[in-house]
Write a structure and sequence with these properties.
The protein is mostly helical and 78 residues long. It has a single domain (5-77), classed as 434 Repressor (Amino-terminal Domain) (Orthogonal Bundle). It has 4 helices and no strands. The protein is elongated and about 55 Å long. This is Helix-turn-helix transcriptional regulator.
Length: 78
């Protein structure tokens, strides 16, 4: 799943992760990620794909946590 620079920034912010956190997951520096998000550096296909995969994993973690919280809340209501 390859993303555009704007999509990377949008989803990173939506999931509440920092440039540093995402950069570490995709193997680039936070400074480079900032350049990419601002359109100051070209987004390579490789980085776009790695960013997409990293954000997909974050999405799965958020979904899992949400499901666990909902299950706990339901159990507490009984």
């Amino acid at each position: 799943m390859a993303l555009t620079a704007n999509q990377i920034k949008y989803y990173r912010e939506a999931f509440g992760i920092t440039q540093g956190q995402l950069a570490k997951r995709i193997g680039i520096t936070p400074v480079m990620l900032g350049f990419i998000e601002r359109g100051e550096r070209t987004l390579s296909q490789s980085v776009a794909v790695r960013a997409g995969m990293a954000l997909l994993e974050v999405s799965r973690q958020v979904t899992t946590a949400t499901t666990e919280i909902q299950s706990l809340a339901h159990a507490l209501q009984k």
